[in-house]
Amino acid sequence: MDEELLLALLNSTPVVDGVRTETLEPDAELRAGRDILQAVVRGDLPPSALTPLLAGVTSHPSISEEGRLTWTIHAPQDRLIRAIVAWDELERSRPGRLRACANHECALFLLDRSKSNNARWCSMATCGNKLKARRHYQRTRSESPAEST
Ligand SMILES: [Zn+2]
Q1: Where are the domains of the chain?
Q2: Looking at the DSSP assignment, which residues form a beta bridge with residue 145?
Q3: Would you say domain 3-122 falls under CATH 1.10.3300.10?
Q4: DSSP of 92-112, one letter per residue?
Q5: What are phi and psi of 61, to 5 degrees?
Q6: What is the mean pLDDT of each run of 10 residues along the chain (149 residues)?
Q7: Cys-Cys crosslink for 86: which of 6, 55, 71, 141, Cβ 3.0 to 4.6 Å?
Q8: From ligand 1's centre to the CA of 125, what distance in Å?
Q9: Quick one: pLDDT at residue 8?
Q10: What separation in Å is there between the alpha carbon of 121 and the centre of ligand 1?
């Protein structure tokens, strides 16, 4: 399964110093497809928005030496299609596990593999601690509004 490929594609627009940066090669079709996939995972677009990205995709059956039927997908945008297939498999096998980071200033996505299914940050070390620290700072400030340092 192409989970890592899917995550890498979704996470190809990290925010660096407050600016959304592009890390994909200059391939307009791939970037546009990635943007749609990001919007679908965020819930900003319905999953059917992915349909146009599947244009030109074909699947060919073959029978292996062991007698197994396998389908090989041929696609103009191979990486994009593999990511969409992985997304589809995830939605079926582990619905809701793939989600955007809870830090709204962060453009990354995470795949929650925890038993409790309550992971919220792409990384505890970056977004998790940053937001906790900010909340703590705001809480301390609102508790003692007259105090200044
Ligand atoms: Zn994050």
Answers
A1: 3-122
A2: none
A3: yes
A4: HHSTT-EEE-S-TT---EEE-
A5: -85, 150
A6: 93 94 95 97 97 94 95 90 95 94 93 92 87 78 56
A7: 6
A8: 9
A9: 97
A10: 5
Distance between first and last Cα of the chain: 53
58 φ/ψ angles, rounded to the nearest 5 degrees: -125, 160
Ligand 1 center from residue 109 Cα (angstroms)? 7
> What is the pTM for the complete model shown?
0.82
Q: For residue 61, what are the contacts with CB-CB under 8 A and spacing of at least 6?
A: 69, 70, 71, 72
For residue 132, report the distance from its CA to the centre of ligand 1, in Å. 12
pLDDT digits (tens, 9 = 90+) for 89-129: 999 999 999 999 999 899 999 999 999 999 999 998 889 88
Task: For residue 39, give the amino acid letter.
Answer: A
- For 21-53, letters b (16+ CB in 10 Å) and e give eeeeeeeeebeebbebbbebbeeeeeeeebeeb
> What pLDDT is recorded for position 128?
85
Residue 145 is given by DSSP the state T
